[in-house]
Design goal:
Rossmann fold, 7-stranded mixed beta sheet, 10 helices, 33% helix
Length: 290
């Protein structure tokens, strides 16, 4: 068994429970969402059908609907509680606007949408909760129309590196998820048939007064440890004491840091389908005229 395999049922229940507290605590998610939206200013795109994959409480879906008037935005999330909070925030008159919004409770790794049905697939800090990145990108490529755009953000390997190091007080269990390197993400995009992928990285450091504040923030947004290799049941007092001691060694200027490495990416679905050779190179087959 892969100790880092994500338990989807735990992910779903964790985000369900956190739905009411999510917006207040999701400071980083809000910041990254704003930066992703600003990047759309440099993209020539007039999408009719948009998928927000991992929509949470619906702020990106709202922003996309406001940006692209007359579009149809599907807000998809694995947690029904998140979709309910998003729906509760919608004013009654929104149903009469030209832009339609729909909600869909589903898993990003198994998109229940028709092939070539979307012009834009957007995903903000969600695909790190998936187990098979190739499956994720292949599914997104399948639902995109030719020349459709995929825009996403996810976490890179340095995310929560301080908590990961402190968690080595208990080396027999996994305490922080495994996050994928930017270069491996780019390779997965190419394998899925996307063209001209563009990726870059940005690092954010949040600061806290104590270790419990770090844990409370993660709990408030539903980011519980969902790996198969996690300890089942409550942690002992001895581990928590050692975790705190190890984390305290990283205190700087009176604060404890929590690093987040954010990987941004966008890529276009090729107009002509690409075939991938065994060495990972893209092969386009030309057929001579008869």
């Amino acid at each position: 068994m892969d100790a880092y395999q994500i338990d989807k049922s735990r992910v779903r229940s964790s985000f369900d429970r956190a739905a009411s507290s999510y917006d207040k605590a999701a400071i980083l998610q809000k910041e990254v969402r704003g930066r992703m939206l600003s990047r759309l200013d440099y993209v020539s795109l007039s999408p009719h059908d948009i998928l927000d994959a991992g929509s949470g409480t619906g702020h990106a879906a709202e922003a996309l609907a406001a940006r692209y008037k007359g579009s149809h935005v599907i807000a998809l999330d694995i947690a029904l509680g998140m979709l309910r909070v998003a729906a509760a925030r919608q004013p009654w008159w929104s149903r009469f606007t030209a832009t339609r919004q729909s909600a869909l409770c589903a898993d990003i790794e198994n998109l229940p949408l028709a092939a070539s049905s979307m012009d834009l697939v957007w995903s903000n800090l969600a695909i790190q909760w998936c187990n098979d990145l190739d499956r994720v990108f292949t599914g997104m490529a399948r639902v995109l129309r030719p020349e459709g755009l995929l825009m996403f953000s996810t976490f890179g390997p340095d995310t929560l590196k301080e908590l990961r190091a402190a968690g080595m007080a208990d080396p027999n269990h996994v305490h922080v998820s495994r996050f994928i390197d930017m270069h491996d993400i780019g390779d997965a995009l190419v394998r899925a048939g996307f063209s001209a992928p563009v990726l870059d990285v940005e690092r954010f450091v949040l600061t806290y007064d104590d270790v419990l504040a770090v844990m409370r923030d993660l709990k408030a947004i539903g980011a519980h440890n969902a790996t198969q290799g996690r300890r089942r049941g409550l942690e002992g007092k001895g581990f928590l004491r050692q975790l705190t001691e190890r984390y305290e060694r990283l205190r700087e200027h009176g604060k404890l840091p929590a690093t987040y490495e954010v990987v941004y990416g966008h890529a276009w679905k090729a107009e002509v389908p690409l075939n991938t050779a065994p060495d990972g190179a893209n092969v386009i087959k030309f057929h001579p005229r008869k």
